[in-house]
Each structure stands twice: as structure tokens, then as C-alpha cells.
Specification:
about 110 residues; mainly alpha; 4 helices; about 0% strand; flat
Length: about 110
């Protein structure tokens, strides 16, 4: 049943490898995020300076409250853990590993 939910539209002869293919794609996704993180670090710092200057000038920027963000993230994590089951633990490991290698090699 889990393999049916994780189906990538693969041909029947590759259906048994769906979990491995998902993990490989998740690792590549992490690599891309790591590269983007490294390249975007300067942009993030400039964005923080821009927000500080905006606050200094007296303009207000509407923010979401931290409780709304926390509640939304918790709901996403709960939904994923119910959907993926035991694979929920494996996915973040491969994603974080991909981010680390992408950041290091980027």
C-alpha cells in the first residue's frame, strides 16, 4: 500500500524500486537546496540589512506571528508522518545529507 502511495508513474518493472528512487531524488533535492543556500547566503544578509534599514526609517512590514508559523509547520510534519509512516525518519536524513554536501561542494 505504501508503494502505491509513493508511485512516481514508473513502469511496472521498476515499481519495486520506488522507495530507492524516492530517496535518490530526495538526496538530489537536498543537493540543490544546499547549493542554493550557499549561493543565497549573501542575499539573505543583504535582506536582513534592508529590513533593519526599513525598521530604522520607520516603515512597517507585516509579519506572520511566530505561533502561526509554528502551528502550520507542526501540521505539515504531522501530515507527512501519517502519510509516510516509517519512511518519515529516513527522508530528512537524506535531505539534510544532500543539503550538507551541496553547501560544502557548492
Amino acid at each position: 500500500m505504501l508503494l502505491e502511495r509513493m508511485s512516481l508513474g514508473l513502469p511496472p518493472e521498476l515499481a519495486s524500486y520506488t522507495a530507492i528512487i524516492n530517496l535518490a531524488l530526495l538526496f538530489v533535492d537536498g543537493l540543490l537546496f544546499g547549493l542554493a543556500l550557499k549561493k543565497g547566503l549573501t542575499s539573505a544578509m543583504l535582506l536582513l540589512v534592508a529590513f533593519a534599514l526599513t525598521a530604522y526609517v520607520g516603515l512597517s512590514i507585516p509579519y506572520l506571528s511566530s505561533s502561526e508559523i509554528t502551528t502550520h509547520l507542526f501540521n505539515i510534519i504531522l501530515s507527512l508522518s501519517n502519510h509516510l509512516g516509517a519512511l518519515f525518519v529516513t527522508f530528512p536524513i537524506f535531505f539534510i545529507l544532500g543539503i550538507a554536501i551541496g553547501f560544502w561542494r557548492g
